[in-house]
């Protein structure tokens, strides 16, 4: 019932509609595109180094003869997976920490929020940059965990302050006066009633994580070779951007499109889920 | 208020201390300054390397806790230690902070000023063409990472300079070395500032304009704007006198957050435009396995974040009589 | 010639929602026109349309003439010359109606300077004069205060000052006293009358409170579903209503002067403006409905001589037969009292509160927080509730009644004193005992919107307490509960937002009943409901009490409702009990000056009574609970104190009175050194 209303509102919102269509097309490109191309991302064409886009290599080739189309789509897959996983972890963590801090108050609140403060003060970029290249083995999954660990704090503060006002709501009081334990109230009443905020936040976290991944990879601190992501490709391409622009423009353009479409969907969701706010 | 500020100061100092210590431990255990000496031709004797590293308090053979104690006892007396090549971190940091602060200050002022103005304008003209153009533009800008913006700006500058046949826009460094005369120096510095400023500010402007527009629209529907109009103010006057002023309050709470993104943006801007500031140092120090520099950068970043938070709170208190205590 | 003339005003919002349909009225010099209606009747939209302040996207048609000039097609730059000058408006919620970042004085001075060419200093001085006029103490100092530093009553006074700054000819008041306590409401209504005398303005008074209108209006317009349904002088409307909705509305109000009469609810709910029935919008709820009612919507038509108008095809018949609400609406039967209850002293005590204390730290500032004092929210109160009894805890906001209730519900040791529920001391309860005790102690909340989790279907909401306490056969119990409170059991799958306010409150009651409790705490259970709905819920509570043998602790501020529902009453003031006793005693012979003022401040829906009764107006605001006065807490506002000699008055300042039993009766006590006995409530001649 409610989800229907939300979907209808989402569909009425032109921004969200464009965003959703664009996002679906990009996902299609990332996951179906590689089967359409003539080359796989590991292929090296020794007859074509740094070739501009052509019929053979649609988006050109790299200096070691890789097909830019195949490599970029491969990198995009990784960026998308990282983006969604980080968003899932960080929003989940933010919801639990924020709701627990707000609901229980007292020392639980102080301890959790002090931890959030500390993580905010720590230069996350630097910490991830030092840690991530050294975490061999688990490779990019560790990177996901690190990105998520540093991206939940602000949302958890918002969740906490909303929980503080929810806690005084009469239906929460009613549950408490029925003798229902705190953690169950959090899971059954608090978190579901913050779902609008959390869905919106998770969506915007996807784009933040994609940018975060690309930023770190830009300096070589993120996804490590032989893996590729949009960030590593942009980093590689930006050095040769004046002579061989296709190395830069395709991954950078896809990154921007991806982030833009996710942001559009997130903004549309905000309008649809939270009609009271203009945000 | 005094007691509150003291409590806050203490907790902030504690946070900075812990953050910096964690960064130090992390850097001291993960980075390997020895590598800088080991790969040399002709090879340097291990004892010599040990001696040099000991001098700089970078020797991985010394237990990490011992190195930490040495580092801390230096830090409390105001000495941040030595870089991997033996320079004083203090001196290097002083120079770099000057470089970065110039960028950050301009970025903050230009970004928030223009952003708030653009957002307020868009809110007042809601649903007009200009509102839509501003909205779409800021959305697109927010989707472009700083390093893509910066790279595009350099491409543009190179293209423009090539087309013109002379260097109109500078895109590397802070100034052109070897220039004589104060005036030439000054204009050269200004010229070098243009592109980094744009690269830093675009995102900030987009961010603030969206925040300010949304906050204004929230406020527009509120009772006090209606009251102002019921008094006989025109819509425009009611908006500027009552809505804009009130909508600045929530925007000010976002200052700390915006400053955080500005710091990250500064890393890329400095690196790409060849400025030797703190942001560039953050990347360089890790790549050079420079433990003490990494710790110093962390210290600086932590202080920046806390100061931004404090400024944000002060701005809110200055704008909103409801949160002042007296 | 009327100063304001509204003709066939229609307002349509985006999506074709017709909020106002064909409103017409005239307002003369110095006249007060009351516009009465329940929520959603379009009364506020009408006034915003007159001001030209509707949000964009609203279509307005018809005609609004001010001094003969048409406002609806007037260009905006001419309109702004009239707004605030010729028409002033007073809004409902004075906190959100003031810009939070400017001082009150500046905002009033701004209103002056918009229309008068005077300097800043002069405007500021004028603002102080205006604040003085509306009775704000130390106006020169208070002018420099920000809106959040004013109390609700003071803000509303300032709002009035701002509205009359330019001596308007018309004042539109949109529920000006709804957010205020009764004694403050009485003050503000007095200020409004002063303002009218000063300006000679005509006033449009929009309210849902039939008592307020009875006291202030000359003529009344009743609205229903966006349409005017009856118009007449205040006496005509109150004593000879000729439209079934008006008749029902008047019959459904609980009245202090007729406490025992069973309330008459109007069945059903007002139609949604998006889905109006084809004929008369009231027909589905009307006891006099005939098939012709569904064919066409009746227009407001003149009945009889004069300006009397009614929109009902059977108005003439009503007039002829002299019908009233009590005769056309079916009076719900009261459940038969099984047996005469045993005397109070022989019954069990279900709740006993002894010297309970609850203090809070007072924090100030949102960013720079610090403790600036202690709020003495509850400062040593004692009362008990016997089985099968309803004790009402009444008082104005800030008196500590909500804190008392929370302390009882928490079932934890209070900071001072004891709370004993069903013979168990809350201070000594083990965890399991506390949970077991919760079965017997349940609560119904004030706001039916906030009391139910919007993300759970009603069935799950009712199942929650059952599951938590290990019940079996939950489905059957849910169906039973829903029918017990008069809802359809097949609606268990619906979400709370699909129910109306009254129905939601019934769900809240069903949830409280789920575990078959013995004591139910009712926290303002009907104050958020419209009167026509409220009557049904009050009746339900009365019935359930008798049928299930419940005891109620009933927290309320509406003394008319309390008179109806309660057996005993405790009046609270600033964290202390001022007076306690049976309702007959306390209402009939109030002994504490505060109780007397409170009772006299309640507006009665009876114009004659309102005109003739003497109000005891209290001075000033409630003192801060962080800094209560020494001795008797009420002494700073006590009307009696002026009559006392210096020696007697000193006792008030030095010695805090405790509740003492008044000599002649068993169950009546007051905390006053000089209690008094005389009747204040008079009964109507009608």
From TrEMBL, chain A:
GO cellular component: plasma membrane
Keyword Transmembrane: yes
Organism: Streptosporangium canum
Transmembrane segments: 80-104, 111-133, 139-159, 243-265
Assigned protein family: Belongs to the binding-protein-dependent transport system permease family. OppBC subfamily.
Subcellular locations according to the entry: Cell inner membrane; Cell membrane
Membrane topology: Multi-pass membrane protein
Lineage: superkingdom: Bacteria
Protein name: Oligopeptide transport system permease protein OppC
Residue ranges constituting the ABC transmembrane type-1 domain according to the UniProt record: 80-266
Keywords: Cell inner membrane, Cell membrane, Membrane, Peptide transport, Protein transport, Transmembrane, Transmembrane helix, Transport
GO BP terms in the entry: peptide transport; protein transport; transmembrane transport
TrEMBL record, chain B:
Database matches in Gene3D superfamilies: MetI-like
Cellular location(s): Cell membrane
Gene Ontology cellular component annotations, sorted alphabetically: plasma membrane
Transmembrane parts of this sequence: 9-27, 103-124, 136-160, 190-208, 243-268, 293-319
CDD domains xrefs: TM_PBP2
Coiled-coil zones: none
SUPFAM superfamilies: MetI-like
Any GO BP: transmembrane transport
Residues annotated as domain ABC transmembrane type-1: 97-312
Primary location recorded for the protein, binned into one broad class: membrane
PANTHER family: DIPEPTIDE TRANSPORT SYSTEM PERMEASE PROTEIN DPPB-RELATED
Recorded family membership: Belongs to the binding-protein-dependent transport system permease family.
Protein name: Peptide/nickel transport system permease protein
From TrEMBL, chain C:
UniProt-annotated location(s): Cell membrane
CC per GO annotation: plasma membrane
Gene3D superfamilies linked to this entry: P-loop containing nucleotide triphosphate hydrolases
Record CDD domains: ABC_NikE_OppD_transporters
Keywords on record: ATP-binding, Cell membrane, Membrane, Nucleotide-binding, Transport
Keyword Membrane: yes
Ranges where the ABC transporter domain occurs: 4-250, 362-599
GO function term, MF aspect, one: ATP binding
InterPro entries recorded: AAA+_ATPase, ABC_Ni/Peptide_Import, ABC_transporter-like_ATP-bd, ABC_transporter-like_CS, Oligopep_ABC_C, P-loop_NTPase
Principal cellular location given in the protein's record: membrane
Entry's family note: Belongs to the ABC transporter superfamily.
Protein name per Swiss-Prot or TrEMBL: Peptide/nickel transport system ATP-binding protein
Organism of this sequence: Streptosporangium canum
